[in-house]
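Convert to structure. Protein one:
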Amino acid sequence: MQIDYEERIDNIEVMLGRLILESDRAQRRQEQSLTKLEELITRNEKRAEEDRIRAEADRKNWNKKWGELSDKLGTIVEDIVAPNIPRIAKELCHCDEIDDIMIRRWVRNKKDRSKRREFDVIAVCGEYVIINETKSTIRIDYINRFIETLPDIPDYFPEYENKTIIPIFSSLSIREDMVNYLTKHHIYAMAMGEETMVLLNNQSW
């Protein structure tokens, strides 16, 4: 009986040793799995951050390209509009020759030198001064800002104070509701006709 008892004790110790060994192995496997999982999470987080940085760089790059394209488009429209101003001036002002024409003129406000403004086209014809604003796309706030600028023209050009200001808002295409809005505020609307730029509301106020 004593021998059987000792053998059982030995067997239990062997089994316990195996159990401890297997437990250690399982723990190591678990630790290795946990380490691999942490490494995978770290790699994914790093990849996600790299993707975010790349996406942000792409967004900024595209915004820059769209901005450049928008500026270029605006310049193209201005280049189409500007050559038509002398002809429109003759139609409106009945003058044979333009006294002065300025394109993309940056001017500082004479009363408030902290203010500067670009005027797309200014044409002087006798006692008349045409102030043209050109946009590649039309928005009501663009028109409203132009309307707000008109009373301040003498602050930028004191020499025009006693002249008649003729405002023109130009684009390649202007919707009828926008034309009506411009007409309501006594502003000529100019857009592309069948062959060249034409006034869409050519009338006396």
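Protein two, convert as well:
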Amino acid sequence: MKIEILAIGRLRKGPAYDLAADYQGRIQWPVSVRELESKHSDSKLAQKDEQQKLLEAFSPGAYVIALDERGKSLPSPELAQKIEDLRLHSTSLVQFVIGGATGLGPDIRKRADFLLSFGAMTWPHMLARVMLLEQIYRCQQIINRHPYHKE
């Protein structure tokens, strides 16, 4: 199973970049990050443009998990079980979606197979990328019964 993160915005060199690269390097599964950007300064136009770019980036047959505040908050072991179930059911590609500063448009939420929330708090989208990579790594470790995750 391949994992692709579709993320709005470019992660620039710095602490968040270094953390993202560290976690991405630890993940044994094929994982890639595709960065998409809008050049619009108007937030409504930017969100519409970002939504269109994301919709075009979805691969046919991919299982799409969108990070959204309206989504379901899962404990890490439950997220690991969800990913393991997808692997066992021969899902070839899981695409995680991280919106930009204005969030995800309604068409992305409708297209998503699952809406995942990192809690009720609002997180900067660049930090959400690091958190997602860490959670993917944590899921891998839980599935492999490695003691990284503490209960």
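The beta strands are 2-8, 31-36, 63-73, 93-98, 114-117. The CA atoms of residues 142 and 149 lie 6 Å apart.
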